[in-house]
Write a structure and sequence with these properties.
Blueprint lengths: L1 H30 L5 H27 L3 H37 L18 H22 L1
Length: about 140
């Protein structure tokens, strides 16, 4: 029974942390009007990375799981959410472009296609950084 409680608590913490992270990611788009984009992007990535690290520490301490095991699994969860988000965003762009071209009988020229969008979400970058660091530390600790 205690293991089910730990799993439930882990899922709740991951959902709450991800919700806050996506809010920060969307809020950053509003701040681009006043703050230079490169500085803002770096700041948001650091904030999201810190949020992911603190959520992993919280899960580890509240559930009694080892920190390396928790980081190993939670980094996969964070990265998967970031990856699905960027794919959903690109699919939305393609869907809107296709619908506009169909409605206007191919007269509408869309500015860009999803395959050519190079800007990545700060959440995806932070989750990738967290994945690489946590897996790197885990493999380093396992072999030394």
């Amino acid at each position: 029974m205690y293991n089910y409680y730990n799993l439930f608590l882990t899922i709740i913490i991951l959902i709450a942390g991800t919700g806050v992270a996506f809010f920060i990611d969307q809020f950053s788009k509003q701040l681009e009007k006043w703050i230079p984009p490169k500085l803002l992007s770096l700041t948001i990535i650091v904030i999201l990375f810190t949020l992911m690290t603190s959520a992993t520490l919280m899960i580890s301490s509240l559930t009694g799981f080892r920190l390396l095991d928790t980081a190993f699994i939670s980094s996969l969860c964070f990265f998967a959410l970031g990856w699905f988000t960027i794919i959903s965003k690109r699919a939305g762009i393609n869907q809107a472009s296709t619908a506009a071209k169909f409605i206007t009988n191919n007269q509408f020229k869309y500015d860009y296609e999803s395959a050519s969008t190079s800007n990545k979400s700060p959440y995806l970058i932070a989750s990738y950084l967290f994945l690489v660091l946590s897996w790197g530390i885990s493999f380093y600790m396992a072999y030394h």
